[in-house]
Fold:
Amino acid sequence: MNERFLRIKRIVLGPRNREFSKKVEELSGETVNLCEQCGTCSGSCPMVGEMDITPSFMMRMVQLGEEEVLESKTFWICASCYTCSVRCPRGIDPAKVAEALRQIKLRAALDFLDISKITEEEAKILPQIALVAALRKFTG
Amino acid sequence: MTRMPYYPGCTLKTKAQNYDLSTRAVFRELGIDLVELPRWNCCGAVFSLVTDDLLRQVAPITNLIRVQELQGTDSVDDPRLVVPCAMCFNVLKRANARMKDNPEDLKKINDFLYLESQPYRGEVQIIHTLELLKEISAKRIKEQVKFPLLGLKVSPYYGCNLLRPKDVAIDNPENPTLLEDFTQALGAEVVFNNRRLRCCGSYQTVSEKGLVADLVYDIIMGAARAGADLIITACPLCSFNLDWRQKEAMEAHSDHKLIPVIYYTELMALALGIGNGFGGEHFVDPQPLLQKFLEKEKGGI
Ligand code: SF4
Ligand code: SF4
Ligand code: SF4
Ligand code: SF4
Structure:
C-alpha cells in the first residue's frame, strides 16, 4: 500500500469514551460518527449566541465520547427548533442528540427547571403550552 | 356542511381561545363544521426525541384512538383530524408516523392501552388547518371576502413546528408561501420578513425570558423594517412570545417598534365579515389598528 495511506492516523476511543458515545447514539437513534464537522448546524442555530459550545462542537464531543459535554449548557439552551435537523448535509439530527444529552441528565434526577422560581406575574400570562413544553424538556 | 374531527389542544381552550373560536367560525363560513373530539387529552406539547420513550407516545396516540371512535359514529363526513395548534400538530403527526413506521412500537402501545375501546390501527390522517385552507383554495376564500383588508400590511410568521422537520412540513421548509397566499386573497398587502422562519425561542420563555426577548426583538424588527402593521401566526406559543415578550424587548432596546400579533384565522374572520368578539389577551393591542376594518363591518359598507 502507498506509504501515505499508512501514515493516516486513526482515532481510537478508550472503553469509557466508546461507551458514552454509544449510549448517546442509542438514545438519539442518530449515527453521530457521520458528522463531518461542517458547521452548518452551528451557523443555522438561532440560539448559538447563548450557548457555551456550538452544536457542531457538541456533536464532536459526543463523537469522541467526551462525557464533559454533559456539563455544557448548549443542550439546555437548544429550543428544538429543528433548523439544524433540516439543514445537516449528512442527514443527522443534532436536535435528537441534544435531547439524548438532556435525558441522560434528567434520568440522573438532575432537573434543570425549578418551577417554584416562576413568578406569580409570569404564571398569570404564560400559556399552558409553554409550561407543558418546558416541564417536558427540563424536568424528569 | 362537511363535518371533520377537530383537536383543539389545551392552550386553545384557555389562553388562546381566540384562536379556537376564530378557527371554528372561519371554517363554518367555508362550509366545514369542526367536530371536537370527545374526551381528548393534552398531547404533551413537544415530541419526545429519544428512542426508548414509548410511554411518551401514549398521550398523542390515545387522541388518535378518539378519532377512530368518532369515525365509527356517524358524526363526521371527512375522517381526517384537523389540528390548528402548530405544536400539537407536530407532536400528533410525528407520533403517528412513528406508529406507522414501527409496527412493534404500535403493538406495545396497544398492549399498554388494553383498556381502550379499540386498538390504534395506525391509519388516522392528520391535517393542519392551513393545509385544509389550501384545499379549499385561496381562490374560493377570495370569493367569500366581504371586506377586503385594503392597505393593511401583514407580515406572516411561520416559526418552526409547521415546517420542520421535513417529514411534517406543510409547505416548503425553507420557502413557504401558504400564509402569504391567504393574506393576499384577503386583500391585504403581504410584507416579507426574512425572519419569518426563525425560532422565537419556544419553551425557553419559561426560564430564559431575556434570551427570548432578544430573539423576538430581532424578528419584530425584521417585520418593522419591511413596513409591517401586523404579524400573523399559527401557533399559540409563537403568538405569546412574539406579543408578550415585546415588553422585555422594548425595555432592552430603545429602538424597538411595537407591532401587534394575531392569528391568521382572526385576520380571515375580519375579511369574511365575521370579525370580532373572539377576545384574547394581548400585550400589544391590535384593536386600534383593526378598528377601521371592524367599523366598516358594523356599518355594513
Ligand atoms: S450540520 Fe451535520 S455534519 Fe455539519 S457539523 Fe452539524 S451535525 Fe455535523
Ligand atoms: S434544534 Fe437546537 S441545536 Fe438545532 S438549530 Fe434549533 S436550537 Fe439550535
Ligand atoms: S401541545 Fe400544547 S396546546 Fe397542544 S395539547 Fe399539548 S399542551 Fe396543549
Ligand atoms: S417559533 Fe417558537 S413557538 Fe413557534 S413553533 Fe417555533 S419554537 Fe414553537
Q: What stands out?
A: The domain at 3-108 of chain A is CATH 1.10.1060.10 (Fumarate Reductase Iron-sulfur Protein; Chain B, domain 2). The interface with chain B takes residues 26-29, 46-47, 50, 77, 79-83, 85-86, 93, 95-96, 99-100, 103, 112-113, 117-118, 122, 125-134, 136-138 of chain A (CB under 8 Å). The radius of gyration of chain A is 18 Å. The pocket of iron/sulfur cluster (ligand 4) is lined by residues A 79, 81; B 86-87, 159-161, 199-200, 202, 235, 237-238 (CB under 6 Å).
